[in-house]
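Exercise: predict the fold of this chain.
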Amino acid sequence: MVFLDKNYSTAIVTYESLSIFEEEEKLQSLIKEDIYLIFVLSQSYPVENTTDFFNGSNFAMTEAHHEFKSSYEITKFGFFKQGLMSLRSGLDLGILSTYWSIVGNNATFKDWLRAREKTPFSKVIQKNLLTNPNINIFNERYSINDFLDKLGVLHDYVHTKGVPYSTFGEFQKLARSQESNETLFERWCQLFQECVQLIVILHLLKFPIASLNYDFIKKFGSYNNSPFCGGLFGDFQENFIRLIGQEKLDFIQKIAREDDETVGLLEWLNSHLDLSQEEIDMIVTEEHKEWEEQENMAKQIKLKTE
């Protein structure tokens, strides 16, 4: 029986070697793109007024983003089991975010946010997801359970399903050269991508406008001046194609164009006149002036308080 000790020195060496490996294999940029995409989704929830920014509707997705970042860093230090446990937490939170969006910001959600209510069981979450018409339509062609079943292995790591899913088992495989840091990292990458894939699919089905590459700049001059209506500020079509494939994206966009709420939203957005490039430049210039004024004011206040 072989024991390995992961101390500070070995963790640093592992981090450095995996950093080189992920660059050589062109994995780093893809991982960071996917983590950033989760952040973008967390900032895209519809708001009707300023107070909605603080109602916690994006809390679960924001936490998912933090969990994925943590999972990535933990894994690169060589703590693979712990990285997969954090990955499972990110997956749960991303799915939970869509669940709460369907259920609504009711009393139960507010109690959960304040830790007065337990997190719903996975079966309850899955059942409620299918009450959303768009998710249900997608599920009829591409089973949501199939996505979840593929990621069931994360549950085994969280609950340590025997030696193969334990830290001890991981050490044994490394010591006997049955596994390497690189192969374990590649396994994490695959599972991470599948987690992001499912979260993105559910989010796009709940907020179909996010699946369409809408040109907010043409209508509002800047993203800062655009309404928070569930759309994404930027072009993420290539990210979606890489993650979920052209076929699934086309199907989601078809659902979007037949969704009554999305149709109404697009009609409202399109009712705004297109801005000329000159008008867009003026809006951007005014915004920059405002930012500079705020920055100068902040500096003056800081100087007065020092």
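Check your answer against the key: Residues 100 and 106 are 9 Å apart (CA to CA).
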